[in-house]
Write a structure and sequence with these properties.
By secondary structure, the chain is α/β, with parallel strands linked by helices. The chain is built from 9 helices and 14 strands.
């Protein structure tokens, strides 16, 4: 969808071409660029012509209704699925991801809802699982503790009582923090977070949102998949909306409001562009206003 000549509305997009919300221009080369990415499973076309930029140092929110293609897109970025068409460009260079290991080697890490943590192991053991430090054939516990402590400190995670407490004893927000710290410690440059605040209380949600903001401020690219628009407008610099496997809209968060995002999610188009005024009621939509978004 492209803005009309009057600049006060929008016209339907060609297939797979997303509207460019006012102010969508970016400077510099994005860390990850998707160009014409499509994915088919037999006769089912799950994704069609996705063009999306994910810049470093910013939070990009990926939103859409169930079945819109969010999970499939994440799996294409993380090497679980190979796109049927299109191209992924990493740091200005075309890449082909044949496995999650390929994505990990580039610096792409995903933190899924189940977090992939071992409840019976402590924080240090979880953070360095598979990357343990050794000294003369023995585990170097002191070095591992120092690495874990420093990583958590850099991410401003201060709520854990001890880095030697079992992960099973942590709150939901603390578990998210450990999973993200593990990704960062493995030198992830793009951190993908799938529904990071799902089923969390108010306090733990604040912890996770602060963590997302900290990641971006440290230069990481962050891709957040969420149904909670209040959280999206709280942390996102940019918003991308998927509708039935196509990119319905993409641009700075300040160019949307909750009503326009909901319209894009449910119909693939919006009667008007969001202007940041937050005219839709947060109480009725479960969303925050565009004026709450982080400014780019």
């Amino acid at each position: 969808m492209v803005a009309n000549s009057a600049g006060d509305g929008a016209t339907p997009a060609a297939a797979g071409v997303a509207p460019s919300v006012p102010g969508a221009a970016m400077t510099g080369t994005p860390l990850l660029q998707l160009r014409g990415v499509g994915k088919a499973f037999g006769p089912v076309q799950a994704l069609t012509g996705i063009d999306l930029d994910i810049p470093a140092g910013q939070v990009t929110a990926l939103v859409g209704d169930n079945g819109a293609g969010k999970t499939t897109l994440i799996k294409c970025i993380t090497g679980i699925h190979e796109p049927s068409s299109g191209q992924l460009i990493w740091n200005g260079r075309p890449v082909h991801l044949h496995s999650p290991k390929d994505a990990s080697n580039l610096g792409i890490a995903a933190v899924y809802q189940d977090l992939a943590l071992a409840d019976n192991l402590d924080i240090v053991q979880n953070m360095l699982l598979g990357h343990e430090k050794t000294h003369f054939g023995m585990l170097d516990e002191i070095s591992m503790e120092l690495i874990a402590k420093q990583t958590l400190r850099d991410l401003s995670v201060t709520t854990v009582r001890s880095i030697r407490q079992p992960v099973g004893s942590l709150s939901g927000g603390q578990r998210q923090a450990v999973a993200v710290a593990k990704a960062v410690m493995q030198e992830a440059r793009l951190v993908i977070m799938d529904e990071p605040t799902a089923a969390l209380g108010v306090t733990q949600t604040e912890l996770v949102l602060d963590l997302i903001t900290t990641l971006a401020s440290r230069g990481h690219a962050v891709l957040v998949v969420s149904h909670n628009l209040m959280d999206v407008f709280r942390v996102a610099d940019r918003i991308a909306v998927l509708y039935l496997g196509r990119l319905a809209a993409v641009g700075p968060a300040s160019g949307f409001d909750s009503q326009s995002v909901v319209e894009y999610m449910t119909t693939g188009s919006a009667s008007r562009y969001g202007n940041g005024s937050g005219t839709a009621s947060a109480a009725s939509t479960g969303a925050g206003s565009g004026s709450e978004g982080r400014q780019t």
